[in-house]
Every structure is written in C-alpha cells, then in structure tokens.
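Notes from hallway chat w/ T.B., transcribed later so I don't forget. T.B. wanted the structure written out for a chain they're using in a teaching module, and asked if we could keep both sequence and structure tokens in one place. Agreed to drop them here.
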Amino acid sequence: MNKDPVASVLNTIRRFDMLKRGDKVLLSVSGGPDSIFLFYALQKLKDKLKISIFVANIDHSIRGRASAIDSEFVKYISESFKVPYIYKKIDPKVYRDNELSTEEIARKLRYDFLIKSAKKMKVNKIATGHTIDDHAETILMRIIKGTTLRGVIGIPSVREENDVSIIRPLIDIEKADIVNFLKKRNIPYRIDNTNYSDIYFRNTVRNRIMPYLSRYNPRIGRALANLAESLREDFNFIEEEKRKSGVGFSKSRKGLSLNLKDIIIQPKALRKEIIRDALTKAGANIKKLSYKHWKDFDSFIRLGQKGKRIDLPGGLRILKEKDSLLFFKLGKLDT
C-alpha cells in the first residue's frame, strides 16, 4: 500500500460510519505497533472528526515484568499527550483451572474491562487495533478448526455489545505498512516477544502458515479479507430474513422454548441461525459445538419424537416436547 495509513484510517472510519461528531472513543492500547499507530492516527484525526479520545490498557500478567513495562510505556504516552488513561492488572490465578484456553480467557477479560471502563468513563465507542492481518488470521484459524458462515466472515468492522460500539479503524490496513510508518517517523512501540513463539495457535498461523500460503498468493491476507467481505453480504441477507421470519423464544421457569411449527417451515439456513440464537441465549458454549452437532440438530428438529433429547457441551440439554423445543441447563429441570 502506497497510501498514507492515516488517510486509510479516515477512509475506513467514513466507509463504515464508525464515528460521529461528539463521540467519545476509548482506545485499547497494549503498546505494540498496531495499537500505538491507532493512538497516533486518532490523536491526529480527532480535531477533524470532532471526537474525544481516551486510553485503556490491561496488563494480562502473562509475561511478568515485560507486560508491566508495556503498561508503563502506554501510561507515559497517554500522559505525554494529556489523554485520560485507565489501567487494570489481571491476577494470573484466573488462567488456572479453566476450561477456556489462555488466549480465550485473556480476550474475555480484556473486553469485560474495556466495556466496564467505557461505562465508567461515559464513553460510547471502543476502538481496537485489529488489522487486515489479524482479520485474515482469524478467518484461516476458523477454517482450519472448522466453522460456519458466521465464522468465515471473520472480525466485524463494527459491532455492538452492551450498548457500546466496538470499532476497528485499522481493519483494512496491513501490519507491514503500520510498522514502516512508525519506523520512518521514529515513533516508539513495544514488542511482545511471545508473538514469535508458536506456543499459541494464532502465532503458528501468523509465523508459519500465512508465510507458506503467501508463496502461492503474496496477497493472501487481502484475498481472505475479500472472501469474508463477500460472504458477509450473504450472512447479512440471512440475518435480515431471520428478522423478517418473526420466530421468537419464550421463557419460563423450565428454560427457553421455540415453537416447532415456526422453525420447521424455515429454510435450513435460517433454522440453523435461529437454533444458534436459542443456544446462545440458553447459555451454550457455541465454540464447543462440532459440525456433527449441527447436523444432528436438523435431524432432531424434523424427525425426532417427543421426549427425545440432545445433551451438549457445557451442560445444556435440548428436549423435544409435543409442539416445542425446550433448551435448559442440566440441574434446572428434572426430565
């Protein structure tokens, strides 16, 4: 990319209508090149966009003193530009005795902190430093592990969570362009040396698989991102049709129920998304579901007899009643 990355950030913000005049934006800044560039770009654009910026930093405690130094660096940068700063240190004990991976726990804790901080600071937008490289890696990781249309569309440019918009202004920029930009201007940033180790699946994808694939397509990251954007149009169509279908859930002391007649008449693609929504609301761990689970759901809905049930990872059960599907956590209902 020959274009100024800051100009690309502005184009992305406008293309996805990420920011409006008067918005307050909490930047998730780790100290690495992507988040430091995010800080630099929005610091430079804030007057043009008529926005206010704030900085949030979390010390995950995974790298000991190194991560503490990163947080000190972010604090120094924030104070140098007189940007309000909020910080949290995670207790390493949270990573033990948990069915989630270290990466998944860290991500959950990070977003919980960002959303709580946004509420506390009365901020309506959160900006993260995800690049097109992160987007492509996420898509490929999901394809390798097995995914659905929802997974292949990757990282959304904008999403809503708990009345806060999470935006990705760097989602169309390559990391190499960011690093070149920072180096040319002598803008300091921190390096997380664990990124070069293959102890995490994402690092293996980033350090080994993507470089290998780039031998056959030097623009593999862009190609995966383009695929996701194309499929997102299909996904958005399905979501709109799901909304039009009017299929809803009812709640009772037993759990969450879906009317069988309402769901059976829907096309298979819609049935799957309706079931996904019900599972999510009932507390299922969607990431633990396999392709076989999704196939079983469809047969269960169409052919299963009254009283039949499916038990899912995380202690969730689906029970087929006469006219409905009942979703509940084991222990809440005797069957």
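Follow-up for T.B.: The CA atoms of residues 86 and 323 lie 51 Å apart. Might be a good example for the class.
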